[in-house]
Automatic annotation (TrEMBL):
This is Uncharacterized protein. It comes from the Bacteria. It comes from Sandaracinobacteroides saxicola.
Amino acid sequence: MTAGDTLRALAAGTAAPVLPACRLESGNTDHFGAEAIADAFRRAPLTDLAVALEAPGHLALFGETQALFADLHGAHIARLWRIGQPDPGAGEPAVSVAFDTDLHQARADLFIAATDHPALDPAALPRLRSLALALLAGSPGFRTRAFAVRAFGTAGQGAALLALHALAANPVRAPSLTMAALRWDGEDSQTLCDPLIPRDLRIRIVA
């Protein structure tokens, strides 16, 4: 069974093997370990994943409204992100971690270091940047910055997982963190985002 077969089966709610330390992030929830991850997909299965993109160490599956990104070790799934789930449930108890984009020296709208993404052809950066900036242009926040968490592919075809750090356009600049999935294939492209959950969100370390 390939990693793609395993991930599709898991997403459909069927028990499928992942590495013991695997973690699934969806919205404001984290699930650790094979049983918790399988249970999360059983409660909210995902079956319309028609588009697959893969590179060494990476796998992304896209449907019409949601996407999955996976880190791979060989053919084994090591880490998962689910983007676009309408109601991921309540967040697990956690301690908030302060995250200041200026202290991080991330003053650009899109923060991406090519050396962090060896599976991304440098020629793909302009396409990725264009899609990311188009996404940020539609953000209702006071300020939104995107951080490339995963990216792979070529100028012709590829995918990227972004963390969107936003400050609300309110008198109190409350921060939020959501995820977005981008893909491009020739002239076609697709952008999927987590909904902004109407409650206090904790800021997580997403690297």
